[in-house]
């Protein structure tokens, strides 16, 4: 057989067989329904697998919910915040809007996602031992000590009422095994919820490389408030954790502005760092109208939110009486 004939035999017989065998033995492509698209895990697929397998319960992400028509935004009041939004979570109507798609630092509003992920991946009665790292996390604190043992629910109160950064790290380590892995889970959840302009760098909000938008935070708050336990915790004005064999007595007080002063407000969370400014997410329900308000990079978050809520409820015909302004 000539060299040219041998070459043709190789091209038309051997190569096709090799290609078929390669297709049959190559790994099955990962479907987009199995793993979140657009986020590469530093732990590889094991992190996503652990995230999925440890999920206890969750509320179906309503990714079809959209921000609807603008009502009253042409006559809305001015606010000090760089960005803000007020939305009727049932109809999707936007009642106030200012730079709502601008990516900004969010400070402790991060803890809303920390709570969401924790409640969906660990039983609230589960025990968590406080590590040296968690106990040593400064700024706002719950007041926990290395070696103490708390239930997840107790730590959740410390996370969401006094905005404890120590509680945030204790929760992250107790739920996912490490704070780094937990942060990945936060970002997985963000993608699941369609928060396309959000990135979390830590579980507390101290890391100012975390960012989000007013729109994304309104969507996150809408989802979080579907969870009765989350809703109950953020609606608690104060609570006392009694002394036990595993931890000290701790009184905890809610820092959320307007919770006990503006009619219908039932949470959600404040935040502050020097870089982020004052931030606030508020959830209010009056006469069947459930509104979520977000203000970012404010110098007067309480005043801004009162103006936004007054305007929003006025737009839908609900009169709110208070002496806050």
Q: Which outline best applies?
A: globular
State the distance separating the first and last CA atoms: 98 Å
Number of strands: 9
The amount of helix comes to 25-40%
* SSE ordering: HHEEHEHEHHHHHEEEEEH
What's the number of domains? 1
Could you explain the architecture of this structure?
The chain has helices at residues 3-25, 45-53, 110-121, 132-135, 152-160, 165-176, 179-192, 214-224, 228-234, 301-315; strands at residues 83-88, 94-98, 127-129, 149-151, 238-241, 250-253, 265-273, 277-286, 289-298. The chain is α+β, with helices and mostly antiparallel strands and 325 residues long. The protein has a single domain (66-315), classed as 3-Layer(aba) Sandwich (Beta-lactamase), CATH 3.40.710.10. The strands form 3 sheets. Strands 2-1-9-8-7 form a 5-stranded antiparallel β-sheet, with helices on both faces. Strands 3-4 form a two-stranded antiparallel ribbon. Helix 3 (110-121) packs antiparallel against helix 5 (152-160) and helix 5 runs antiparallel to helix 6 (165-176). The radius of gyration is 24 Å and the shape is globular. The model is unreliable at 1-40 (pLDDT under 50).
Give the key terms.
325 residues; alpha+beta; Beta-lactamase; two-stranded antiparallel ribbon; 17% strand; disordered N terminus
Topology:
Blueprint: H1 3-25, H2 45-53, E1 83-88, E2 94-98, H3 110-121, E3 127-129, H4 132-135, E4 149-151, H5 152-160, H6 165-176, H7 179-192, H8 214-224, H9 228-234, E5 238-241, E6 250-253, E7 265-273, E8 277-286, E9 289-298, H10 301-315
Antiparallel strand pairs: 1-2, 1-9, 3-4, 5-6, 7-8, 8-9
Helix pairs in contact: 3-5, 3-6, 5-6, 6-7
């Amino acid at each position: 057989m000539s060299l040219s004939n041998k070459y043709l035999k190789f091209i038309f017989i051997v190569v096709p067989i090799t290609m078929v065998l390669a297709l049959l033995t190559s790994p099955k492509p990962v479907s987009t329904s199995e793993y979140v698209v657009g986020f590469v895990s530093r732990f590889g697929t094991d992190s996503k697998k652990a995230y999925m397998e440890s999920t206890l319960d969750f509320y179906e992400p309503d990714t079809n919910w959209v921000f609807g028509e603008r009502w009253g935004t042409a006559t809305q009041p001015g606010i000090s915040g760089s960005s803000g939004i007020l939305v009727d979570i049932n109809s999707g109507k936007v009642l106030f809007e200012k730079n709502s798609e601008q990516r900004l630092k969010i400070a402790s509003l991060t803890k809303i996602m920390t709570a969401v992920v924790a409640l969906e991946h660990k039983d609230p009665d589960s025990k968590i031992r406080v590590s040296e790292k968690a106990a040593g996390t400064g700024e706002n604190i719950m007041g926990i000590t290395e070696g103490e043992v708390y239930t997840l629910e107790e730590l959740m109160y410390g996370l969401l009422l006094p905005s404890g950064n120590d509680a945030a790290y204790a929760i992250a380590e107790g739920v996912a095994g490490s704070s780094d892995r937990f942060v990945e889970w936060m970002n997985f959840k963000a993608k699941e919820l369609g928060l396309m302009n959000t990135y979390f760098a830590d579980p507390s909000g101290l890391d100012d490389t975390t960012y989000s938008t007013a729109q994304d935070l309104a969507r996150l708050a809408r989802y979080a408030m579907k969870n009765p336990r989350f809703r109950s915790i953020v609606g608690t004005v104060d609570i006392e954790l009694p002394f036990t064999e595993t931890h000290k007595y701790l009184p905890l007080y809610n820092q959320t502005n307007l919770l006990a002063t503006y009619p219908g407000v039932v949470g959600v969370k404040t935040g502050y760092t020097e870089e982020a400014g004052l931030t606030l997410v508020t959830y209010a329900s009056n006469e069947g109208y459930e509104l979520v308000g977000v203000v970012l990079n404010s110098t007067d978050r309480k005043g801004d939110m009162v103006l936004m809520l007054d305007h929003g409820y006025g737009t839908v015909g609900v009169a709110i009486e208070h002496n806050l302004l």
